[in-house]
Amino acid sequence: METIRTIYSDHPALTTIAGGLVVATAGILVYRRLRRNTTASNAEEDYPKDTVILHQIGRGPFAPSMTPFAIKLETYLRIAKIPYKNVHDMKKSSKGKYPWISFNGHSVADSAFCIEFINKKRNVDLSSWLSPEQRAVALAFQRLAEEDIYWVLVVQRWVQEVSVEFFRMAYSFPLSWLFLRFYVTPSVRRMAFDQGMGRHSKDEVLHIARKDLTALSVFIGTKRFLMGDQPCEEDCAIFGQLSQLYWQLTGPTSNMFKEEFPRLVSYCERMKDRFWPDWVECTTQGGTSKATK
Ligand SMILES: N[C@@H](CCC(=O)N[C@@H](CS)C(=O)NCC(=O)O)C(=O)O
Questions:
Q1: I need a surface site. Which of 46, 127, 137, 158 has the fewest CB within 10 A?
Q2: Which CATH number fits domain 41-122: 3.30.70.360, 3.40.30.10, 3.40.50.1100, 3.40.350.10?
């Protein structure tokens, strides 16, 4: 104690900064621990029977979610006409991600496994009208959207084109810029680097996005949906990703999407009109929905 007092009287500013850093670090560690504890494993399951409970973060500013996987899952529930209820919270799945579902007390993590689970429970198959070969193609395009375009989105939104303003609007966290600067950006940057997309320059990411979107646009062509005149299961995933580029991303890829890919823009509008008549009400800027807290 005596030593600290001596250091403080010799270097008051330095000691105050160091003390502040220690307190801030402790705060972040406590916060992270609390977040880790708030996962599906201790979720209360006091929900209506035979109703899918869709756990997702709050609504987004211009689309119903900031996460494409929540839009995918909710679109699927709507197309398949499954009774569901949204629970907007920050609880992560047992795999540490959003969104996830619970059904009659049983929790399922990962949007793809959620859909498989509901398909089995409710005997649903939105792609049953496709041949095995068509199904293979549809799955390949889903992977293109979720495993490549998704990372373009992540890198542009959280690494290359970070907008504190947008973040403030999207997430009503107190001190959101601090949270963005010291927690979200570094952790997403690390994830994107490990995945690989985060290692590319801005021009290279845009180049990758252009190739992916061209492939998707050429394949959809004049069809109404991915595989024909009716939507299949994979449309949900593709719409989830494209909805972010079109409505909820700022910067080069979003501009390119709107300027160079009119067919994909029409596709997004078509999916929205058909399955989301309440789209605006499900956004925080257009409707009364609550943002993520
Ligand atoms: N494969 C997962 C991906 C879900 C995912 O990546 N969710 C992101 C939000 S877009 C997430 O939870 N990120 C938080 C984190 O990784 O800590 C799915 O289909 O559900």
A1: 46
A2: 3.40.30.10
